[in-house]
Amino acid sequence: PQLEEARRALEAPLFADVGGDMEVSFEFFPPKTEKMDAQLWDAIRTLEPLGPRFVSVTYGAGGSTRERTHATVARIQRETSLAAAAHLTCVEATREEIDQVAEDYWAAGVRHIVALRGDPPTLGAKFASHPGGYANAADLVAGLAKRHPFEISVAAYPECHPESVDTVGDIDNLKRKLDAGATRAITQFFFSPEAFFRFRDAVAAAGITAEIVPGILPVSNVAQTRKFAGLCGAAIPDWMDRLFEGLDDHPAARQLVAATIAAEMCRRLYAGGVKSFHFYTLNRAELAFAICHMLGVRAKPQAVVAAA
Ligand code: FAD
């Protein structure tokens, strides 16, 4: 029977089982310079025809990108066919200030907020909420939901948030955010589909029915990824180091390896029933575009994009 199974596996063409019946979303960060702005818009225009259900723009630590995030989100909303989502954090701001940011988004036609607590501006410092501010992400979700019927997404951690005591506490916190008015969770990046599946099971066992969308980070620079992975509760497996060994001077090969790893991970997640993927693009379209292509996510006819 084992031989039979192996033969069947070999006969199935690679990626034949992914049918394009999935939804994707893309995350960008607000550009700092004109050159970065051009790169971002190149990425947006490349990915737009794939018809993502939304694209989101991050909010810098301590609200450092407040204006730039707003400008980017508002421009996407105004000038493209895409639904833009704005990340928003509680750090270093009063409730009134954050509420005003949310009001400005609503006025600009933005209907989707990714609500986060955020991290302290000093690396490694302990988080302390602003005396007049929102205490955490659940508190922020409640505040936003009171103001307008925003669609609200929140963060989830398949390998546990670094400050949480255990998975149970982490999932309790996720439940509080969803109960406060969020509709979906987007996960921190991870490189173990098994960790995601274990987390999904634990979330379901806790009675949570909201969708948990895996956050996919296509890694082409493992050293850089390692720098911030530790801070956000994501493990970099040894095999990933081995795959990138000796490729420092081969950027094109690194891109191919990156696409292969991420596509294979998405394929496994898909085989386990996952139908939505959120890509951390780092403002570069090619990797996400190639992975989506392999997964069967193709450009939608122009008319469909325009009507969406
Ligand atoms: P929370 O959900 O508030 O949780 C933070 C920690 O506190 C957890 O350990 C939780 O278990 C614990 N906790 C919360 N409430 C309680 C309670 N009542 N009792 C006990 N424990 C509690 N950061 C940015 O600065 N800008 C961004 O744009 C950004 N985008 C992100 C997007 C995604 C998809 C993800 C996954 C993360 C993003 N982050 C961003 C990072 C995020 O801000 C950090 O991970 C931050 O440390 C936690 O944010 P949170 O919203 O998960 O916090």
TrEMBL record:
What Pfam families does this protein map onto?
A: MTHFR (PF02219)
Query: What is this enzyme's EC?
Result: 1.5.1.54
* Superkingdom classification of source: Bacteria
Cofactor requirements of the protein: FAD
Q: Which reaction does it catalyse?
A: (6S)-5-methyl-5,6,7,8-tetrahydrofolate + NAD(+) = (6R)-5,10-methylene-5,6,7,8-tetrahydrofolate + NADH + H(+)
A GO BP term here is: tetrahydrofolate interconversion
Q: Please name the GO terms that the record assigns under molecular function.
A: FAD binding; methylenetetrahydrofolate reductase (NADH) activity
Example of a GO cellular component annotation carried by this entry? cytosol
Query: What keywords appear on the UniProt entry?
Result: Amino-acid biosynthesis, FAD, Flavoprotein, Methionine biosynthesis, NAD, Oxidoreductase
Q: In which pathway does it act?
A: One-carbon metabolism; tetrahydrofolate interconversion; Amino-acid biosynthesis; L-methionine biosynthesis via de novo pathway
Q: Which InterPro entries match?
A: FAD-linked_oxidoreductase-like, Mehydrof_redctse-like, MTHF_reductase_bac
The UniProt family comment states: Belongs to the methylenetetrahydrofolate reductase family.
> What name does UniProt use for this protein?
Methylenetetrahydrofolate reductase
Q: Which organism is it from?
A: Sphingomonas carotinifaciens
